[in-house]
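Journal club prep, shared notes

We agreed each person brings one worked example of a sequence with its structure written out as tokens. Mine is GTP cyclohydrolase-2. I'm keeping it raw so we can talk through how to read the token line rather than staring at a rendered picture. Sequence first:
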Amino acid sequence: MSLTPDANEQLARARADLRIGLPVVLRDGARQLLCLAVETLSPERMAALAVLGGTPHLVITSRRAETLKARAYDGDLARIVLPRDADLTWLNAVADPADDLRAPMKGPFNALRDGPADLDRLALRILKSARLLPAALVLPVATAPEGLTVLNAQPTRHVLDTSSPLHPVISARVPLAAAENSRLHVFRPEDGGEEHYAIEIGRPPRDAPVLARLHSACFTGDLLGSLKCDCGPQLRGALAQMGAEGAGVLLYLNQEGRGIGLANKMRAYSLQDQGFDTVEANHRLGFEDDERDFRLGAALLQKMGFSSARLLTNNPAKIAMMERAGIAVTERVPLKVGENPHNAHYLATKAAKSGHLL
Ligand SMILES: Nc1nc2c(ncn2[C@@H]2O[C@H](COP(=O)(O)OP(=O)(O)OP(=O)(O)O)[C@@H](O)[C@H]2O)c(=O)[nH]1
Ligand SMILES: [Zn+2]
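Then the structure, token by token:
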């Protein structure tokens, strides 16, 4: 292996660059796009972009375009032409739905129809993987400024399509209130993404279906005891059941907010304060209702030596994904705990719109 970064490592750098407001270069042959996250764009960088000349445009997902009543000629995304007087305030108002109700954006929006949108699509995928709002200011350029991270489209797409291999870092005994005989395993992905954890209760036999839970991180529910969701009681309920049976594996996956990150989840909560439900809020922000990749749950179980599971869940999508990824689900074990007046509407919405079982 050479000492220079490969596509995986370039992507990790690009995520960090975009999060601090630096542009990255997306390249496909002779075509190049300078790409900036609207969320972290500063007035200075916007002015520097203007000096380069050319015609920048704004890329948003079709979910966001739908709310704005902008035409998404490219299917899953729209390339919005910037009005002549477009400034940072305008860009932010298109990207971020926070003020949609108080100060609705007035169209009509002019969207590009011609030319390829593949690099624009890649820009949105990278922003989502950096847990930023999926809205990019892009500028086609002949030559890019020096010193920027350059991503070649084909290998970058391949990296995004593939689950990053996870490697065990360390495991140690952590006696829990629910089960004294417990170990915490830490796994680290190769792509610079978040670490994930496995809590192993007892010593489940590897050749039998293991009582397992894929738990998605929820800072508000798991740690703060938020009543807006059922995550905290589900976490403790799953551990308690594993403790009672003397064996089980709880995968704690750092996919906060169904994979959109805590900042975006709080944006979604703020929209819920304005009356939108959990699915509508994700869509207004430009996300799908669920952006998680459950393949990593299957990968972790396989790494630990399991090939079948009794899965603690109410979410059929999790079961389907585990089966597709090579873990046989021999039984669905329901996990109905923690309903309260604050989350009743949330749970009903998940049952009605996301297929969760009641
Ligand atoms: N985007 C978004 N994420 C949320 C919201 N409320 C909870 N979450 C996240 O949702 C995830 C939990 O997923 P759930 O849908 O409750 O449960 P599930 O994992 O799909 O299914 P179960 O296995 O039945 O619990 C956690 O990552 C939470 O942070 C919300 O309103 N918006
Ligand atoms: Zn939660």
